[in-house]
Amino acid sequence: MRQRVFASLNRQTPEAFRDENLTDFEADGTVSLVFEERGIVAVADLLKQHPVDGSLWLGLFIVDERLYGTGIATRLYEQLEHVYMRPFQTVFRLGVLPHNERARRFWERQGYVYEKGSVTARGDYVHVLKKVIS
Question: How far apart are CA 127 and CA 87, in angstroms?
Answer without folding.
Answer: 25
